[in-house]
Amino acid sequence: MRKISLLLTILVLSSFISGCKKDDLKNEAGTYTGTFMVTYNSGIETGMTTLKLKNGKFSCEGNSNRIPAGGSGSYSTENGKITFNDENGWTCDFDWNLILEGEYNYSFDGKKIKIWADKNDVGHYEYNLEKN
User: How far apart are the first and last CA of the chain?
Assistant: First the structure.
């Protein structure tokens, strides 16, 4: 009887673990499009953007008004955080937090990704994207 109970426990736990949706972007190469929003004390600004992820590399399309500015380079994920390492040179005439750079929180359901961070007491930066 003890063996059956142990076997049932293992079976239930393994089905629960395998049934969980993985919240990991490491293997989710693709193109994601949607909106970017920055919330400052003075108001909210939004823009459309596209984020491409593949083999630990990223590229994010910026807009001429730099909402967002974009960026490209490498990224990594760990414990619900995603870190972007932008590899571009930038001018100093705008809010550099608009560059996709540094550590962000993220959530991913297999189709939609939300990436957000509060940066340098300047504003709240958020991407709401969907896989194409």
Answer: 51
